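STRUCTURE:
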């Protein structure tokens, strides 16, 4: 395997790390601000380039393309930096690039304290995200996730809002536990497979001829389900998520809720399901299904009760993870393909909502929706973008979320009629809390508290510092919503008779 002279995946990982290193070396702030644009834009450009050229690129084994391998001195342990994209990782790689660009642009105009350190951590987080979804080696898949996760704790604890210390501690405890359980599961796959390396292709090839026993699959998949489930905020292991997102600075919340939280779902689809199909069958019903319904109904009702705008967005993010787990539980190509599409759509829409929620706070001086009202009169552009993000989160046709939820519901109908009917109530819940939030914030009479804010500091509509990153996310939601085949073709190709996989779709 040769390393190409132009490796978009390596560039996407290395560029933000290089800029972060220059910041750490003490570059002047005026230089840092310019370099940061390059650090956030380069991964997005490489991701879009890979997306555009994916269909024409020559596929190697297991449907991967843009494959390269770099020695890191750990070859004796079966570990090497192997990068590549298949139809499942490509959409998440693109998501990381687009959301990272939006979060970076938003951070650059935020005037956060200790801006150089803030940008350094955000760039490290961005590099970790790109590496996570580009890694074919299971060790580096996990390593890059941890690289992106550590800055999250620091950013919440230092730059967070209300209850940031408690939120950072809760996130640390829960996510460390989830990461350790998932690490044990990944190590078990490698050690018991007998593969010569952590290379996922090699592991799948080995297990294609010598699959795990049913007992081993049950135990290992259980570790991964609970480990990844905690990282994805599967009910009832969800409480860290809305608390952490409510306290996190907006750019960190955009990257974590929008991208990093997809690590667990991606790991289940890319690794666990293909090599542990019997374990997936064992755990999917009733445990995983019950927990997923808890996400949709229990957390959905909790979301409806929220009066804090940012907390509402955080809880809604947790709620929609239930749809994803139900899609995985169906075990069908249609359902799992819908999950991959939903991960991308949800990542874009929730990142947009966190961005816009902070923009609302800047104009109202509060996240309490009962203390707002009538903001659309002063910020019509902000109102239009918020409504678009709300409609997307509701799964309205024309937005990417629709093409994620619809296949899941169709696959779920073939799995269980009654479960589909119960789950569909989540769409009603989403409409209720989303439209009610838009009405309270932007329409109707001004609350007495907001009237006082207007009298002293009349709010203005969003400028290009906020508008540009919001438009990037909104445009991506509409583009995929209008042309879903731009992603679904690659996804379907990876899920239909995947080379070397032991999964049997139901």
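SEQUENCE:
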């Amino acid at each position: 395997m040769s390393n190409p002279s132009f490796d978009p995946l390596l560039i996407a990982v290395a560029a933000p790390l290089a800029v972060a290193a220059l910041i750490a070396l003490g570059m002047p702030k005026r230089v840092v601000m310019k370099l940061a644009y390059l650090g956030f834009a380069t991964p997005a450009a490489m991701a879009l380039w890979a997306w555009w050229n994916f269909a024409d690129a020559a596929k190697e084994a297991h449907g991967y393309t843009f494959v390269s391998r770099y020695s890191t001195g750990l070859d004796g342990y079966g570990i090497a930096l192997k990068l590549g994209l298949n139809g499942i990782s490509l959409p998440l790689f693109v998501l990381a690039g687009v959301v990272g660009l939006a979060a970076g642009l938003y951070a650059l105009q935020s005037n956060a304290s200790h801006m150089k350190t803030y940008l350094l951590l955000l760039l490290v987080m961005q590099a970790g995200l790109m590496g996570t979804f580009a890694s074919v080696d299971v060790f580096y898949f996990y390593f890059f996730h941890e690289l992106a996760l550590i800055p999250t704790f620091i950013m919440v604890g230092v730059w967070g809002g209300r209850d940031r210390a408690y939120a950072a501690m809760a996130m640390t405890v829960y996510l460390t536990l989830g990461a350790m359980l998932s690490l044990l599961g990944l190590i078990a796959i490698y050690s018991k497979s007998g593969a010569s390396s952590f290379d996922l292709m090699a592991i799948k090839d080995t297990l294609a001829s010598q699959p795990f026993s049913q007992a081993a699959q049950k135990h290992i998949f259980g570790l991964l389900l609970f480990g990844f489930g905690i990282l994805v905020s599967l009910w009832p292991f969800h409480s860290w998520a809305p608390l952490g997102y409510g306290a996190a600075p907006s750019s960190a919340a955009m990257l974590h809720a929008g991208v990093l939280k997809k690590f667990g779902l991606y790991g289940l689809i890319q690794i666990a399901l293909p090599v542990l199909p019997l374990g997936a069958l064992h755990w999917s019903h009733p445990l995983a299904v019950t927990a997923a319904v808890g996400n949709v109904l229990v957390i959905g009702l909790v979301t409806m009760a929220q009066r804090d705008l940012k907390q509402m967005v955080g809880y809604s993010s947790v709620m929609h993870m239930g749809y994803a787990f139900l899609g995985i539980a169906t075990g069908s190509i249609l359902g799992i393909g819908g999950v991959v599409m939903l991960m991308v759509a949800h990542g874009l829409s929730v990142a947009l909502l966190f961005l816009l929620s902070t923009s609302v706070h800047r104009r109202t001086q509060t996240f309490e929706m009962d203390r707002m009202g009538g903001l659309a009169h002063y910020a019509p552009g902000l109102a239009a973008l918020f409504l678009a993000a709300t409609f997307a989160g509701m799964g309205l046709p024309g937005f990417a979320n629709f093409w994620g939820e619809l296949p899941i519901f169709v696959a779920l109908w073939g799995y269980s009629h009654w479960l589909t009917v119960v789950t569909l109530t989540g769409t009603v819940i989403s409409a209720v809390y989303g439209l009610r939030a838009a009405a309270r914030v932007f329409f109707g009479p001004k609350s007495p508290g907001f009237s006082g804010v207007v009298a002293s500091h009349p709010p203005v509509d969003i400028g290009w510092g906020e508008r540009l990153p919001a438009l990037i996310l909104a445009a991506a939601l509409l583009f995929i919503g209008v042309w879903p085949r731009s992603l679904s073709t690659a996804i379907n190709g990876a899920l239909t008779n995947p080379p070397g996989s032991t999964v049997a779709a139901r």
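REMARK: Residues 333-364 form the longest helix (32 residues).
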